[in-house]
UniProtKB/TrEMBL annotation:
Its main location: membrane. The keyword Zinc-finger does not apply. PANTHER family: PHOSPHATE TRANSPORTER. The keyword Membrane applies. This is Phosphate transporter. It is a multi-pass membrane protein. Pfam families: PHO4. It comes from Maribacter litoralis. Belongs to the inorganic phosphate transporter (PiT) (TC 2.A.20) family. The chain crosses the membrane at residues 6-30, 42-60, 80-101, 113-133, 153-177, 189-211, 255-273, 314-332, 468-492, 498-517. InterPro entries: Phos_transporter (IPR001204). One of its GO terms (biological process) is phosphate ion transmembrane transport. It is found in: Membrane. One of its GO terms (cellular component) is membrane.
Amino acid sequence: MGENIYLFMIIALAVLAITDLIVGVSNDAVNFLNSAIGSKAISFKTIMIVASVGIAFGAISSSGMMEVARKGIFNPSEFVFAEIMIVFMAVMITDILLLDFFNTLGMPTSTTVSIVFELLGAAVAISLVKIYSGDGNITHLNDYINTDKATEIILGILLSVVVAFTIGAIVQFFTRVLISFKFNEKPKWVGAIFGGMAITAIIYFILIKGLKGTSIISPEASMFIAENPELFLLGNLILWFALSWLATTFMKWNIYTIIIILGTFALAMAFAGNDLVNFIGVPLAAYESFLSWSNSGQLATEFNMEGLAVAVQTPTYLLLASGIIMVVTLWFSSKAKNVVKTSVDLSRQDEGDERFEPNFLSRQIVKFSIKASENLNGIIPISIQNKINHQFIKPTSYALKAKAKDQPAFDLIRASVNLMVASVLISLATSLKLPLSTTYVTFMVAMGTSLADRAWGSESAVYRVAGVLNVIGGWFFTAIVAFVAAAIIAYVIHLGGIWAIGALLIFASILIGKNYLSHTKKLKETKEEEILKRAESSSIQGVIEESAKNIANVVKRANKIYSNSINGLAKQDLSSLHKNKKQGAKLANEIEDLRNHTFYFIKNLEEAHIGASNFYINAMGHLTDISQSLEYIGKVSHKHVNNNHKKLKYNQIKELKQIDIKLAEILDNTYHAFDERSFEKIGNILNNKQELYDLVSQKISLQVERTRSEESSPKNTTLYFTILLETKDLMTATMNLLELYYKEHDADVKPATLD
């Protein structure tokens, strides 16, 4: 039984390693996809191919060393095999749960920091067990744990955040001042100089970070680069400047696109070559430990693990298999795309849908920054300010902004600076042996460049700053949770043995499965609801034709939300009412987004089609009224049941169902009229509207009579009247919308649209 438990643990660790690879790539894809996807320099398919080649190359050329164990988070000689296996098991279970949690939220975090603090937490837990079972005290913990390493990692987080953000902002500011947004109009030699510098930085990064310690670079070449970095960089700068000039002048290539392709490849390769050990390093170290113990003939509780301090070389076939898993995950992981979206949205040049709500800290930072900017402007001469401001003038096209989803989040210059600065900082940190996190550097450089590029304007600054604070807070949260969770899991395994391991693995499987199903359901719902599309037509008939699908969508969802409110009240189903309340808020937010688009819609219009703007504004007003009534009905219904107030009486429920059935009939007819573009059917719906108005008025009169004679619950009465009055408002808004479309639609006029 003794050997079987460790064999079971090795098999479990192998499965956990594959799972960790999948969730790890979903998290770290943001490091190398952010700039290429945000700039849309190349097609998404090409980006994925370049990144896949980089990952495969990096995985195969990886030195495959168990870096974390080798660098000594804990002292292996102080532990025996049985204890080390508990540590490794706790680390892998915690790592998968933690990374999957962040991926589900769409937040980038550091796999290096999570693995280090998990090792630290699990090792501390087992060390404390050893200390107290041997009548020691807490001061002996230093014998087991390398506390200097943990301190170094924490300083590395702070250093990554501050240095990457600051350097990114400074380099982007001066690059923009020199090249401006009209970089395509600059002479070829300007692009060639920029290309020479950027490609040199990226090549140096590939050699120092990506291929260091591999068989691809000879020890002599590595020594030459290490001893003569200035000479190596100068030679590269001249070579790449010449090649960039030739490529742009004679071959008409876009140098910025080349930089982005090279940079994406470099970061993907470095990720696979260096971060691979974060996912498979612990299981490999466990496997090596298992082999050493099996061959020793000693008991698991006696075999000392001092041999673990020696570097463990990974077999090539395992690296190749890991590379394949990583590439497949990159192509198919929707969570990876979600994490990338967070980074791209926060660095987007233009306003749009903001993912994060502003908080007190983000508001104070923005206020302080505005004051500081005003004070700085008082020092700099007006003439210099005007010259700088001129370089930051963006070529604006509001017609393009209407299709913001299809446009780059930022331009090629910013994407190139992101990749160049991240490459330089990571290379420099590696050569100086500073523990900078690749995730932190790439993310904070992107945030710094977006700030310097004036992407965080008064319209979006509080949201973007709040987003960055959330992500940074998440990083420190990672470290704390990784430490605590790994320590608890290690102690549970120590107490429960194989039964605890089995229970924890089942728990992890259920949780990851639940997160996956929840994430898939969200994606499916988004597709099914076809999030309301922004109108881009330039005439009334064009807007009618284009927005018909939106109206059909709103009416269908309105019908469902109203019915769910009535049914939820009838059954006192709090869970159903809670979901329904969220659906009402979601619809209201989407319509609010359409209203925010009004500015761009009006900018698109030519004078000949100015009537379309009035139609669009009125339609948006009626849609807003519909969503507000639905949201309020959903909210008060949920609140009533949640507060355990008296149930509605049988007669009240019966009357509400009568209204619901009649309203459902009208909304269903409306849905078909818009979905099938049969606008002539609207006349029949309008002719029958009085019937529902009369029905609602009749129910109000009945409730007034009931309240006078028999009703004893004020809350009950308030809820009932609220629903009836909001139903009336809902009907009025719906009929006003129908009248607007019925009056303005002309089947003989062909809809005009924007080019």
